[in-house]
Amino acid sequence: MIPKYFKKQTESIKQRFVERRKLLKPFIKLYNNPILVHAIYDLNIFYKILEEGKIKLPSKHSSPKKTPHMEKVLKTDKGIYYSLGFQYLTSYDWKYGFIFDLNYLKDLTYYKKGIHNKAYMIVVNYWYENDKGYLEKLANTNKLTRQVIDTYYTKEYNGETRKILEFWKIEKELFNFLEKYPNKNKIIKEINKMAKERILKYPSSKRNASKIYLEDTAPELIGHKENNLLNNPSFLGFCIVGNIPNKLKNILKEKYPGKILFDRTKIKKISEL
Known about the structure:
single chain, 273 residues, alpha+beta, 9-stranded mixed sheet, two-stranded antiparallel sheet, 11 strands
């Protein structure tokens, strides 16, 4: 079953990257750099973070994890996810976000390319090349698994097939098949090697982020400590797309008057609301 927060996919992959670069233009003009975002899909969660002034670690709240199974393998299940630019807004229409400058990369683990999607690509590619029957068995589990694996087989990206795997739609089934697979340790070893090779430490991560925002690629950024918005010097403000209820407007004015607000078109100050 597709998690509700991933159900609304927008545009094609290419179009998402085009839109992502477009949304960053006002920030490049203002700060001469792209920005980091912690995106939120649910207004009630957004309210709670605003009122508490903290983005808490997963162990301190009950919000669902986005890729709960592979996170345990990669040991990212205890972290807070950030993106370079508006990845979740342009991909899944997550309308709320907290914006930070690139200096906050000092406190994050920076993977120069995504690791969760790549991890599942390693799994499925291994079966495709070494055990096609097992991959077909996964594909035939239900209608959705059949659809996802057929997309992997046939849909082209940059003129190539087997580049698109919508793993989040079938993560439970996919991971269960990995868990039962006789050679799973060999595959997991390859996954962990990949993740380690993609890490860039600060300030290399900042230099990388300053360049690759122009490319069709998305790094993965993970924080391992609570983010206190009220005393974080890298915290710039908010992204809110659509109507702002009076309750939300009042909280912003009361607690965050000096911060910025981006509405998908322009940047303004909270004090101007």
